Amino acid sequence: MPNSTKKAIKETFLALLDERPLNRITVKDIVETCKINRNSFYYHFEDLPALLEEIIAERVQELIQSHPTVDSLEDCFDAAVEFVRENRRAVLHVYSSLSRDVFERYLMEVCLYVVTTYVEADFAGRPVDRQDKEMIIRYHKCECFGNIIDWLNSGMEYDISAYFHRIYQLKRGWEGEVLRRENRG
Questions:
Q1: pLDDT tens digits along 102-136
Q2: What percentage of residues in the chain have a pLDDT greater than 70?
Q3: Selection from 46, 51, 148, 144 nearest residue 95 by Cα
Q4: 86: number of CA atoms within 13 Å, CB side?
Q5: Which region holds residue 160: left if phi is over 0, alpha if psi is between -120 and 50, else beta?
Q6: Contact 54/45 with Cβ under 8 angstroms?
Q7: pTM for the predicted model, two decimal places
Q8: DSSP category for residue 23
Q9: Alpha-carbon separation of residue 21 from 36, 89, 154, 156 (angstroms)
Q10: How far apart are CA 141 and CA 120, in angstroms?
């Protein structure tokens, strides 16, 4: 029974978060919707921030488990964006709240995971200096995180996946041009 109560609390919280900002959700709202008493809520969660953090941590782990491999940098960004798109309105409500730091910390974890997964696979069997690999991972992790934050700040008004795919298409063309110029000179 406790697991079903805990699950009901999480589902109710997410449904409420999809409807309204985080600062307009109370424990009372959750317990009344779930038809449980306050003690049941506090048996499972210390407070609303603890509930939010547990839900985000679970979603991050689900995302990581569903992407054991990443085949391209574009796929890295698509996987990280998937984390945000799953509950668009809820994410915007959390992102616009005082709990933004919790969301950002887990988003950074997702970005680090997908970029590291890709880079490790891409450089497997090649002699690459550890520091160089770490630098590449850090660069792309920050690029991923920063672009997603910028997208959130715009209200998710554009297709960020198309944006990432086009950026990497342009980068490949630019890198090819640089190589052609170096070979001529």
A1: 889 888 998 999 889 888 888 888 888 889 999 99
A2: 93
A3: 148
A4: 15
A5: alpha
A6: yes
A7: 0.78
A8: G
A9: 22, 9, 17, 16
A10: 13
Number of CB atoms found within 10 A of residue 40's CB: 19
Torsion, Cα 99 27 86 168, to 10 degrees, reads 0
Long-range contacts made by residues 43-48, C-beta under 8 angstroms, separation at least 24? 43/2, 44/2, 44/5, 44/6, 44/9, 45/9, 48/13, 48/22
Give me the amino acid identity at 42.
Y
Fill in the amino acid letter for 136: I
Half-sphere exposure (CA, 13 Å, Cβ side) for 17? 27
Compute the residue count for the chain. 185
CB atoms within 10 A of CB 168: 15
Please name the amino acid found at residue 101: D
How many other CB atoms are there within 10 angstroms of residue 90's CB atom?
21
Which amino acid belongs to residue 65?
Q
